[in-house]
Amino acid sequence: MYGLFLRHFYLITRSFPRVLDLVYWPTIQITLWGFISNFFATHTTYYNNAVGVILTCAILYDFLFRTSIGFNMLFLEEIWSRNFTNLFIAPMKIGEILTSLVATALIRALIGLIPAVLLTSPLFGISILDLGIFLFFLFLSLYLFGITLGILVSAGLLRYGPSFENIAWSTMFLLAPFGCIYYPIEILPEVFQKIAYLLPLVYIFEEARNILINQTVDIQNIYYAFLWNGVYFVLSIVLFYYSFNVAKNKGTLINMGE
Amino acid sequence: MKNLVEVKNIKKYYGKNEAVKGISFNIKEDEILGLLGPNGSGKTTTIGMLLGLLKPTSGEILINGQKLEGNRIEILEQINFISPYIELPKKLTVKQNLTVYGKLYKINNINERIEFLSEKLRLEDLLNSITGELSSGQKNRVSLAKALINEPKVLLLDEPTASLDPEVGDFVRSFLEDYKKEKKISILLASHNMNEVTRLCKSILMMKDGIIIDEGNPKELINKHGRKNLEEVFLKLSRSKNELN
Q: I want to staple B158 with a disulfide (CB 3.0 to 4.6 A). Which of A172, A207, B83, B222 is the partner?
């Protein structure tokens, strides 16, 4: 497990552009949403009491996005570098491969997120720490969902090969409207609301807004977020093992590369 | 000599496409077995099955007496593979790549192992070079070092000297001969270089359309088919119908 982590650690530390890439997009994203937040805060009544709501949700969403994309990137790196076969003939259990990718994806996401979070205080006078102890649960829940999406996409890459790559980039964009990241769930049409309630995202972002705007905590939201996360996480693991077996039958694991 | 690899009537079908139609062979300790055949004959599929990357439709593979099915991890600790179609991460240095694979193969004394292999494979001056910036000959030697990092009992080589200049090709062949003799390992060599096969292999399997159409010692095969060299035998068998055996 440590070997696979080391492989990606070397890759990141050897390349300044890679570190820059990890930090650049979250920083741009959060700066942009910071200014939008300021604009909304001065022109709407909804956000009057909590100017940091949009920005906080932007930071949370970016963490989710980075975790999911980070996991996919680790898998795609092996395909692009034509190292995939080497990895799958090393004596590693599937669980070990997943565990090391999960840990590495967290580090990648944090490298991008921490500088961006630190910027929000001096630039916009907002601290995500206002969410208090529940911030940890929200982050954990988002991390789990990001990893789950990453595992699902990687299962697709195993099953269908590199042609599945485009899906890797688009999953988060597909789910974002249902996640109610920047708006309450009531904005969605009823049919979409029913779909949204099947995702952990809506509970996480509704709860973040609830804490910041109403200064109260609804434990049920956090509970449902973890419940759905658990369901999707188990499903993603099962699907990954299934895809691995299908790949062994179809021969996708041999010479997989660009 | 003990059989380190035992392949018993393995078949691999992709739907209606019969890639390997039931082949059996053994590889002894201290033996290099050549695997020859035209493109699409089933060589890569056979290697994929030996590596556990492909599940045989039926049949059985034993490595060092252990069934591959159900013991994949234990067996992968004892085998390794190189092919020009797979590479090591290009952005890492040679030493970093070898360290990563040393860790993946759970090698205890990684630095000593890297030192030993880099000396044997003339890699001392390349250890801090970026792998992607090496020449194909240098990359080939690095891949070989990676393939030997776990001191495999069974080594699978797919075109190990493809695209190498004659000097490096000869170096790699000599190295493989010496290493096999010293460590008593089994090697399966898939190659289109007939001189290489003639030099390294005491026995060869000739595959075509998913079956073994002939096998034996290179000299015996040359005599049997009344040809001057192995290349001519290869051409004759490749162009023939499958009734020769």
A: B83
The yes-or-no verdict on residue A131 having pLDDT over 80 is no
Q: What does the DSSP assignment read for A105-118?
A: HHHHHHHHHHHHHH
Question: Could you give the CA distance from residue B217 to residue B230 in angstroms, rounded to a whole number?
Answer: 10
Rounded to 10 degrees, what is the CA torsion of B49, A245, A144, A223?
A: -150
Please answer yes or no on whether A3 and B146 come within 8 Å at the CB atom. Answer: no
pLDDT at residue number A51: 62
**Chain A residues within an 8 Å CB radius of B103:** 2-3, 6
Chain B touched by A6 (CB under 8 Å): yes
Q: Does A11 touch chain B (CB under 8 A)?
A: yes
Residue B55 sits at the chain A interface (C-beta within 8 Å): yes
**Strand B3-14 with B17-28, pairing:** antiparallel
Out of 1.10.760.10, 3.40.50.300, 2.40.10.10, 3.30.200.20, the CATH code matching B1-78+152-245 is 3.40.50.300
Residues of chain B with CATH 3.40.50.300: 1-78+152-245
CB distance from A95 to chain B under 8 Å?
Answer: no
Instruction: Calculate how close chain B gets to A253, using CA atoms only, in Å.
Output: 6
Tens of pLDDT, residues B199-227: 999 999 999 999 999 999 999 999 999 99
| Nearest CB partner across the interface for A10, out of B44, B76, B96 | B96
Q: Is A77 on the interface with B (CB under 8 A)?
A: yes
Domain boundary assignment for chain A: 2-250
3-state secondary structure of B139: helix
Q: Which of the residues A89, A93, A104 would you substitute to probe the B interface, choosing the one with the greatest number of B C-beta atoms within 10 Å? A: A89
pTM of the model as a whole: 0.87
ipTM of the complex: 0.88
Contact B92 A11 (CB under 8 A): yes
H helix intervals, chain A: 2-14, 16-43, 53-80, 84-88, 94-124, 134-160, 165-179, 190-196, 200-209, 219-250
Place of tokens 């590889």: B27
